[in-house]
């Protein structure tokens, strides 16, 4: 392929050395290039094709007249850009790098959808050796791997979320179990109301709440306990002062919807209230009281 004396002396060998030898060396070089997997093009310093192998036609899906000895590199690149293998901006970047005489690599997507990795390496004389390799399967495998990795990460995140939800559910169940145990141990209503207020403040840390119970005469409801606020609960309210008791179901109030505030709320607080909900307390099928959860607007 090269001159024996150059190999023996260790002097650097270039394409110019091969081209300057006899036709036998050139034919040997061409035969070696033709059996390689990559498509290979050798460009001269002035951007003219000096040599290419036959594999380049298959790799780049080229017609036989698309490239040959003497083809101008700019014309070849312009034709590839016109086919949509890369954009005009990328083409301009390629030409800038060629003028700078630096190595670079890029992927080109052929009209068939195949992906070809192209590597351009400068020669010491100022030309370029460009190799093109079909990497369609490798790029697809990488894309599939990325999808599988993302799916695995999503599954892991979902599993962590489910685990956190399960831990939160178990913590809530444990808290409710403790509440039930404390309520069963109460010896007076005062203790019961104290425990309810403590646990409600713990379960709903950002809430304000009030609990009312029907009096024996059932004409009024007495204030039993409150949490998240101090001294704002009414001593007594009438059953018809709450929409939830009048309608027999939970009542949710929102300032941004068509609804009306309950009369049992203090008038001076009406401008400070945000969303709130009133829930009838039912035991053994009878309504025994009212639970009000409030939120104030800062």
Automatic annotation (TrEMBL):
Keywords: Coiled coil. It comes from the Bacteria. Residues 138-165 form a coiled coil. This is GAF domain-containing protein. The keyword NAD does not apply. Gene3D superfamilies: 3.30.450.40, PAS domain.
